[in-house]
Amino acid sequence: MKQITEKTIDIDSILREKMGAKAKFVPAPFVRWLRHIIHQDEVNRYLWESRHLSGTEWLEECVRYLDMTLIVDGMENLPDKDDGRLYTFVSNHPLGGEDGVALGAIIGRHYDGRFRYLVNDLLMNLPGLAPACIPINKTGKQSRNFPAMVESGFRSDNHMLMFPAGICSRRRKGEVRDVEWKKTFVVKSVEYKRDVVPIRFGGENSDFFYRLANFSDRYVKKVNIAMLFLVDEMYKNAHKTFRVAIGKPIPWQTFDKSRTPAQWAQYVKDKVYEL
């Protein structure tokens, strides 16, 4: 796990790690802008002050730090932690930051920390979060390890928390909604006989974010530019109230041969937006 210092997040180091020798060609003004847009100093201050926490406790402290108020409907739909079974929890991903933090805090508390996220490997730079994470980099050098990492998560004795869209929601025709859900959670839940618990998280990012995301998706397809602004969006969404709706578990036997795994993924996505 990454060592916590008063400068745990260091853009210069991350660029060198991701780009190697090419990092030296990144213009200094751009690097300074990156430090600003990811709130490097503020994030490092929080990481230092919460350095004694990890996993669920760290996530709960992050909820307090961001002054999030969570209104949870359907807590009774969370399966009993002592029923001897493992579950796959799937949610929409409207924010890209607070939603992951909040759901991790809720699921982690209910199941005594026995859950794991599938997350972008950049989040492994957050030491308090790292113990709850299975790092995924689908576009970099580790992309070939993606199936193995997913497999290890489902083979473990942890519940799985997933955002099947893979990226945060987009606004299309005035509606904030996830992009297509990947079928992985269906295939693996059937293989490992895990019921699927649908969750809807209510919330939106800024108009600027959605305009930028749509522009990036259309014209700069190889790079998710909007992702650079997720930390900034997280701070913009501080001090807000969010509704979390937890649906009834969907038995894994539901996902039979009458539909393809991709069609079942769409079915679950539709169920989420009905909550």
Provide an overview of this structure:
There is one protein chain. The protein has ten helices and nine strands. With 275 residues, the protein is of the alpha/beta class. The protein has two domains: 1-49, no CATH class; 66-274, Glycerol-3-phosphate (1)-acyltransferase (3-Layer(aba) Sandwich), CATH 3.40.1130.10. The strands form two sheets. Strands 1-9-8-2-5-3-4 form a seven-stranded mixed β-sheet, with helices on both faces. It has a two-stranded antiparallel sheet with strand order 6-7. Strand 6 and strand 7 form a beta hairpin.
Key traits:
single chain; Glycerol-3-phosphate (1)-acyltransferase; seven-stranded mixed sheet
Give the gist of this structure.
By secondary structure, the chain is α/β, with parallel strands linked by helices. It has helices spanning 11-19, 28-37, 40-49, 55-65, 98-110, 146-155, 184-191, 207-219, 230-236, 261-274, and strands spanning 69-73, 87-91, 115-120, 133-136, 159-162, 170-172, 175-177, 195-201, 241-246.
Helix content: 25-40%
Order of helices and strands: HHHHEEHEEHEEEHEHHEH
End-to-end CA span: 37 Å
Write out the CATH superfamily name of the largest domain: Glycerol-3-phosphate (1)-acyltransferase
Q: What does the oligomeric state look like here?
A: single chain
Q: Mean pLDDT, nearest integer? A: 89
Radius of gyration (CA) equals 18 Å
Number of helices in the DSSP assignment: 10
Task: Write the CATH architecture name of the largest domain.
Answer: 3-Layer(aba) Sandwich
- Largest beta-sheet details: 7 strands, mixed
CATH class of the largest domain: Alpha Beta
What does the overall shape look like? globular
CATH topology grouping of the largest domain:
Glycerol-3-phosphate (1)-acyltransferase
